[in-house]
């Protein structure tokens, strides 16, 4: 019998102006254990623990298992019967990349069980294909803050064919830029939050986001407050999504008054992410929580760290 255990970090995508192209891994984890079964009677058994365990599918539709199957299909092998244990640490459908942990977890787990036939870069391409955008799965797999873009990689001249591949850039993150997450107790599905976005934008909006993303990259690298305060604005997704998040304006203002550089919708929401220097982190946490409390919305607010390791083998016994 062979067993592997892994941990995959939560992620915050977009960071304001970097819609669908930038994200960072956070110090909050889902843990997964895969045990290859010898019996042919049970093809799949899934056990889930954690506060939201009942909300996770335990049949073949489970996203982690779907990614596991996708891996075997890719390497053209029959998937073995497997028991999967899931310890949930990342809240579901809150804009913290829970689906990315499942996709990355399923692919990495299957790769380890089969003796690692695929390289990390191949797992990454598969994960992006499954999720549909790179900004959660890439940092979940690699750790750190990552910017992704597609490049068209041309095959040798005579074939004149091309295929889409992703280029990834590591974005340095200054030690004194602290991510604070305010996680409300209601869900917002990414699918629903993408439906409210327009399909076209003006040239002015495109220029606005390009400039602000530049400030974000330099602000994250240097920790400069004047750049970070400008950086976190966006015209691509947040103006359309904020009405899906009750209390957004009040929480936003309270965090800024408490000294945050800026506040953005984490991923597709509803979690709000503030970036703040370490001395003000506690004050910003309290301010965000108390505003949601006044609106009678329960929330969990905490200062996290950026995770620089990404998905990792733990081999901790479940
Ligand atoms: N540990 C898990 N195991 C299996 N499926 C999961 C797990 N975590 C999340 N999922 C699936 O992913 C869905 C949530 O995905 P969704 O994209 O809506 O939100 P998110 O990934 O948490 O947020 P965002 O993409 O905005 O960061 C869950 O409803 C569930 O179907
Ligand atoms: N970039 C994605 C992240 C959430 O999966 C979005 O905002 O829809």
Topology record:
Layout: E1 2-13, E2 22-36, E3 44-49, H1 63-74, E4 82-87, H2 98-113, H3 120-131, H4 137-142, E5 145-154, E6 162-171, E7 178-184, H5 190-195, H6 203-222, H7 225-231, H8 238-241, H9 248-257, E8 262-265, E9 272-276, H10 281-294, E10 299-303, E11 312-313
Parallel strand pairs: 3-4
Antiparallel strand pairs: 1-2, 1-11, 2-4, 2-5, 5-6, 7-9, 7-10, 8-9
Helix pairs in contact: 1-2, 2-3, 6-7, 9-10
Bound molecules: adenosine-5'-triphosphate (ATP) and L-homoserine (HSE).
Adenosine-5'-triphosphate (ATP) binds at residues 13, 30, 56, 62-64, 86, 88, 92-102, 136, 189-190, 267-268.
Overall description:
This protein is 34% helix and 26% strand. The chain has two domains: 2-167, Ribosomal Protein S5, domain 2; 178-303, 2-Layer Sandwich (Alpha-Beta Plaits). The protein has helices at 63-74, 98-113, 120-131, 137-142, 190-195, 203-222, 225-231, 238-241, 248-257, 281-294, and strands at 2-13, 22-36, 44-49, 82-87, 145-154, 162-171, 178-184, 262-265, 272-276, 299-303, 312-313. The radius of gyration is 20 Å and the shape is globular. With 318 residues, the chain is of the alpha+beta class. Strand 3, helix 1 (63-74) and strand 4 (82-87) form a beta-alpha-beta unit. The longest helix has 20 residues, at 203-222. Helix 6 (203-222) packs antiparallel against helix 7. The strands form two sheets. Strands 1, 2, 3, 4, 5, 6 and 11 form a seven-stranded mixed beta sheet that branches. Strands 8-9-7-10 form a four-stranded antiparallel beta sheet, with helices on both faces. Residues 157-161 have low confidence and may be disordered. The chain contains ten helices and eleven strands. L-homoserine binds next to helix 5.
């Amino acid at each position: 019998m062979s067993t592997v255990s892994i941990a995959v970090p939560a992620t915050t995508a977009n960071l304001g102006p970097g819609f669908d192209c930038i994200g960072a891994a956070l110090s909050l984890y889902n843990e997964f254990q895969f045990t290859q079964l010898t019996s042919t009677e049970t093809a799949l058994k899934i056990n889930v623990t954690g506060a939201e365990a009942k909300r996770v599918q335990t049949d073949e539709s489970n996203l982690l298992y779907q990614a596991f199957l996708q891996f075997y299909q890719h390497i053209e092998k029959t998937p073995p019967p497997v028991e999967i244990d899931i310890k949930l640490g990342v809240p579901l459908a809150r804009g913290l990349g829970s689906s990315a942990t499942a996709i990355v977890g399923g692919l990495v787990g299957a790769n380890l069980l089969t003796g690692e036939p695929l390289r990390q870069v191949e797992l990454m391409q598969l994960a992006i294909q499954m999720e549909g955008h790179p900004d959660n799965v890439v940092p979940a797999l690699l750790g750190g803050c990552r910017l992704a873009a597609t490049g068209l990689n041309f095959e040798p001249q005579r074939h004149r064919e091309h295929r889409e591949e992703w280029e990834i850039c590591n974005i340095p993150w200054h030690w004194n830029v602290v991510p604070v997450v305010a996680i409300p107790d209601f869900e917002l599905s990414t699918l629903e939050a993408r439906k409210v976005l327009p399909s076209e934008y003006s040239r002015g909006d495109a220029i606005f986001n390009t400039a602000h993303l530049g400030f974000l990259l330099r602000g994250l690298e240097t920790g400069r407050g004047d750049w970070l305060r400008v950086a976190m604005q966006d015209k691509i997704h947040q103006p359309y999504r904020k009405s899906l998040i009750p209390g957004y304006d009040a929480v936003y203002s309270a965090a800024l008054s408490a000294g945050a550089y800026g506040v953005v919708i984490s991923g597709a929401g509803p979690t709000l992410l503030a970036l703040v220097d370490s001395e003000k982190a506690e004050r910003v946490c309290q301010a965000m929580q108390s505003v949601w409390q006044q609106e009678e919305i329960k929330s969990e607010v905490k200062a996290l760290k950026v995770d620089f390791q990404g998905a990792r083998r733990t081999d901790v016994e479940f």
